[in-house]
Each structure stands twice: as C-alpha cells, then as structure tokens.
Amino acid sequence: MTTAGPTELELRRRNFKAQQSTVQTRKQQAVCVRRAHKKYGSKSQPNIILDGLNMTVPKGCIYGLLGASGCGKTTLLNCIVGRKRLNSGEIWVLGGQPGSKGSGVPGPRIGYMPQEIALYGEFSIRETLKYFGWVSDLSTEQVEARLEFLVNLLMLPDPDRQVKCLSGGQQRRVSLAAALVHDPELLILDEPTVGVDPLLRQNIWGHLVEITKHGRKTVIITTHYIDEARQAHLIGLMRGGYFLAEESPEQLIVQFGAESLEDVFLKLSVIQNMGKRRRSSILQSVTDAIPIPAGSVNEGAILDDEVGEISGEFGDNTSMSGRSARRVSIAPDASVETIPPELPPEEETEVKWTDYLKIVKWSHMRALVWKNFLWMWRNIPVMTFIIGLPVGQMILFCLSIGHDPNDVTLSVVNNEINYPMERCEYKAGCNASYLSCNYLDYISNNYSLIMNYYATEAEARQTVEKGKSWAMLVVPNNFSDSLRSRIDNGKDTPSWDLAGSVIDVFSDKSNENIATFITRDLLFGLEGYAKSFLKQCDIDPKVFGIPIKFETPIYGYGSPDFTDFAAPGIILTIIFFMAVALTSGAMLMERNEGILERTLVNGITGTEVLFSQVITQFVVMFGQTTMVLVFAFPIFQLTQNGNWFNLFSLTILSGVCGMCFGFVVSCVCENERSATYMALGSFLPIVMLCGIIWPIEAMSPYLTWASTCLPLTQATESLRCIIARGWGIQVPAVYYGFLSITLWICIFLTISILVLKFRKG
Ligand SMILES: Nc1ncnc2c1ncn2[C@@H]1O[C@H](COP(=O)(O)OP(=O)(O)OP(=O)(O)O)[C@@H](O)[C@H]1O
C-alpha cells in the first residue's frame, strides 16, 4: 500500500543535505548506525556479519531492511535493540545509545517482535498481551482497550484461547500484537508477515503506514517478501556486511530502471559481485554491459569488498569513515536543499543519581511474578512432580541408606561337634558342653546374621569364594574347655588353651561395609554372650569385659547410625540441587525460546528477572522444604534435637543458594545439554567434598581446606550441630553454616547479574 501524493513528511524523508556528522545530528534520527562491525566466531576464523555498516532511520518512517537469508538482518536488529554488542562502531536509538542510563532503550519506547514466536504457549492471547502491556507500564484497562483494537486489526481468534493451540500464523500475529500493545515510538519487526495471508499482510502494512503518518512513530521491518517493502519509505538493501543501497523504493526503481525491488536487488548484487572480480577482463566486459545509473551505487562496495559504507544519511551523509569515505552514496536529490523545520525533538532524559540506586521497578516485578505464577498454575502436573520429587528422594534415602544389612550369611565349621551327625544348639547353664554353640546361637538371635554349618573348612571356604557367604568361622575342637581354662587360669593359661580358645574368621572384605558389620556383631556378640555366661557361673561379668566402658553419649546415638549422620547433608543436597535444576530449567526455557530477549528489550532488566525468579522459586522451595522435613523427622523419625526454625531456615537458605547457582548455570550455558553437564558435574564433587557421606576430617589436608570453602560444607556441619547436638544459632559452628551459605548466595547472584549484564552478542 502506498500513500497518495507526497506528504510534507515524505518530502522531508527525501531531502538530504550534506553537513558535518555530529553527535547532535545522529541523535535526531530514530536509529543511526555508524561503522558497525560485528563478527561471530573465533579470532582465527571470524564470521564477519556487519562490516562497516552505516544505517540511518529518520524519525517517522517505515524502514524496510532487506537482504538474503543469513546476511545479518537479525544481528543488526539485535544490536539496535541493545541485545547484542557491536565489535566496533556506534549505534544511536531515539537519541541515546542503547543500554545507557536514561536512553529509554531497551524500554517501552521500543516494540520488538523477534523472528521466533517467543511467547508462553500456556498463556491465552489476553494474558500474553496483559503481560507485555504490564511490562510496558500499561494499566489493565489500557491493555484491554488495546487488546480489542489489536484483535480486530490482526484478525486474532478468541483472546481466551491458549497460544499453544493456535496455528503458526496466528501465533506470529499474537507475537506482533505483543510488540504493538504499548504503541511504542519505535517498532522493530523481524519478519512479521511470514506465514500471513495477503489480505492480512495488507492490513498490517496499512497499520504501519497509518502509525507513521504523523512522524511520531518509526518502524524498522525485515521481510523476505521484497516487493511488499515498496510500501516502506526507505529501504536498506543489505549484502556482504553493509548496505548496497539505502534509499526510497520509488527512487531505486527509477534509478535502476527496474520493474521491481527484487530486480534492483539482483542488479545491485551482480554489480557487487563484479566488483569483487573486477580484475577479470572477461567479467569486466559483463560489468560494462550492465547499465548503472550515475551515482547510484556504492562505489566503495565495488572497489573494495572489505569496505562497507553506503549510507545516504538523512542530514548526515558526509559522516564517513576514512575507509568508507571512498564510497559514493546513492545520491539524494541534491536539488532540494530545505529541511522542513519541525524535526521531532531530540530526546534528552535527565539521569538522576538516585536512578542508579533503583535495582528493580515494582511494575516490572509485578508483571514478572504474575507471569511466573501463572506459568506454574498452567503447569500443575509439572509443579506437582517438582514438589513431589524431593519428597520421593527423601523417602528413598530414609528407606535405603544407613541401616544394618539384613540376613548376612556366615559359614561355620564347628569342630567341637560332629556335624552333620550332631546339631549345634544352645544349652543353658555354666556347665554347658559346647560354649561355641551357645555363642553362635546368641549371635543369631541378637544380630541379623545367618549361620550355615559345614563339615569341612574346604566346603565352607568354597561358599565364601563363590560369593554365597560373607565369612567363614572355624571353631577349634576343644574351644569350650580351652575357654574355661582361660577364665579359670587367667595369666597362667597354658599356650595350647590360649590357641584353642580362638575362633578364626576368614572374611570376604570386598564389601567393606558388610565386613565391618560382621566384625562389629561378632565382637559385641562375644562380649554380650560372655557376660550372660559369667552370670550363670556366678562370676562378675567385668572379669571378661574390656577395660573401657562407653557410657551414654553426650550427643548423638548409642550405636553408630549412618542415616542420622548423612541426613543433614542429604537434606541440603536434595533441596540445593532441586533448586538448581528448577531454576536453570526455567531460565533456559525463557532464554532459548527468545522470551527472555524479548522481555529484556521491553525494558525488564536481568536483575528483575532474577529477583522475580527468586520470589517464585522461593514459594516452590518452601513447599519442597516443608515436605522433605516432615517426611524426614516426624514420619521417618530421624533424630531432631534442635530448633525447628533454625533447621528450616538453613534448609531454605540452601535452596536459595541452589537457585542462585541455577542462575549462574543458565547464564553461562548456551543450552539445556551444557546446563545438564554443568549441574551434574558439580553434583558429585559437592556430595563428595562437603562432608555429606564421609567426614571431611578424613580427606587429604589440601582437600579439607578446599572443602571448607564449598557451599554445602559448613552448612552441613551446621545442620548436624543443630539436629544432633541441639545447638543454637549463637554457637560458631552453627552460624558459620548460615554465614557461608549466605556468602555463596551473594557470590552466585553477583556472577549471574554480571554475566547477564555483560554477556551480549
Ligand atoms: N549467535 C551466533 N553465533 C554464531 N553465528 C551466528 C549467531 N547468530 C547468527 N549467526 C550467523 O550470522 C549470520 C547472520 O545471521 P542473522 O540471523 O543475523 O541473519 P538474517 O539476515 O536475519 O537471516 P534470516 O533472514 O534467515 O533470518 C548467519 O550466517 C548466522 O549463521
């Protein structure tokens, strides 16, 4: 669609006047790009995308950015909206440099529609527009009014339908509506008409023409339908990192005597290619055969494909770099010298020092937190799983870790009895014939050991060697008599009785834990049996006991309990890593679907995104922590002698710490896969080094030092002190845990904020 007759504004758009390139003139454009260089890839293999590109978008125009796929249009737009950084060059947007304080860019002055859909599939159209409207400081009533208008303009379906249920074309229109909802000064649309039918495309262009009519709004649009760009006031034809031409479509068509813009683009591309090979005489003849309108092409592009400026800059066309000054811009109509007086005023925003102190904006926080909760509400099965998962892990821990092994089999060769003719059974009394049978019976009854009897050592040894039994016990044939002699004679016991009163144990120590349990049971069992036997003989049991007595412990448990030892570390680890997974997952989802980029262009800051996630995830973590603690203590009866508040707050802090680590993971990693590697890669070191499953005192001295600095080490020790010793916050071992984890939260948050701030392009 074209407007009838040249308006004053159109005249202005066509009028160029050579003048000095000053910051002043650059600030007066809607967008002004100078000597832009942007490359991806490494130093040795750079992929140069923008190569000295100049671009001038006057206020109040529709600027069509055209070029082949992959030529760098999206990259250029991302640099303009402040989401990517140039390697060198300058960009001015609405009078300021993107990202500088007070420029308003990124912010609600811009409406940005990225190439990807970048919307929340679970939200309805209404909710989507409400979110983007709120982000841009609109009230709910204003959003509703705009919604009605945009539904009509873009022929959107019922606003209460969910975005994920719409067709691809409908989703693109919702995405466009989200960019238009706050009626911004500068609209940047990356291929808004892809997949849109011709009638609707016409509507969209009609709307763009309408909003730019009064010169207050500016539109930059990329499209693959080159001919629809005829409705733009200016077009930039991009190729090889710079513009082949930057001119009004009518003028280009006239100058090149072409039928369509597509023809112009083809001609310019051929000319540019020929310039690259101008030393070839064969190609030179072809070049000569193509009619080139005088002064209409970027000579620099022909002469030297490394250089890049072509801009016929609106009121600024002498601003060429040394290199690009060799180029000839597409000539403006030099006959017209006047510039209409009322250029849109220069945007100057005063920056107060207090602005630097404002970390978050409450309207932004409201929109973000509302959006996060709405997403959760729409994903109840996912959320149930997320809250239920730590509980499941805790139940598994309580059921599986730290308990004594059951039914451990031992192979016994008792040479005191004539096996298999005779049975080895308990016989009461001081004069019982086989004390070994009484001892083995005592052990079987009091410990979870199963005795299997064999006639020969060879048979018994085979069972151990084949893994059917964990140890072989060999009882000497005169064990009972020798033991009695030992008790009766004390230090005068003959050496044969000393040797004859010893049961030999041959263990399978391939499983250290089970071997240790067997050793413990045999020793404690012997002590227990000896005491009962001595009592039956009216002898003081102390005679046989070792001269050390373990009284009731001051803290902790009578018998070693690994479940209670490991529980504090396990609780903190579960909550920490669930938060890592949840946060990095949520952030990466937003980032990779382009939603985060879009939100940041709307003026939301990385810090606000982080804080909103902190608030939302905190609620989730609260639920997770409560459930985990309920299952660990009241239900599974793990020891808890301490203050519930301290226990709860330290667990929550570990979740917050995990959340902040999740932010770091999502900021540093490009995709879910690298995030998974990073999270998994950190899991085992933390579990191994933080004293969760083994005391840090047992580590090598250097590791002990390193371990002390890790996020969960002090916290685990602190939690152990709280629940096992019942210590309060005033005790250093307890508050060190709180301090260390708080310090880690600050470190992770700072890293995330810095990475979000500085990692662009
Ligand atoms: N993050 C990135 N890292 C490395 N290369 C990139 C990155 N983003 C884009 N590129 C490369 O930069 C070039 C320009 O990409 P860009 O998306 O800007 O092109 P485009 O003109 O918008 O293409 P299209 O019209 O197909 O969307 C492409 O070759 C692309 O592969």
TrEMBL record:
It is a multi-pass membrane protein. Residues 532-759 form the ABC transmembrane type-2 domain. The chain crosses the membrane at residues 565-588, 609-632, 644-665, 677-696, 733-756. The keyword ATP-binding applies. Gene3D superfamilies: P-loop containing nucleotide triphosphate hydrolases (3.40.50.300). Residues 31-265 form the ABC transporter domain. It is found in: Membrane. Keywords: ATP-binding, Membrane, Nucleotide-binding, Transmembrane, Transmembrane helix. Pfam families: ABC2_membrane_3, ABC_tran. One of its GO terms (cellular component) is membrane. GO terms for molecular function: ABC-type transporter activity; ATP binding; ATP hydrolysis activity. This is Uncharacterized protein. It comes from Dendroctonus ponderosae (Mountain pine beetle). The lineage of its organism: Eukaryota, Metazoa, Ecdysozoa, Arthropoda, Hexapoda.
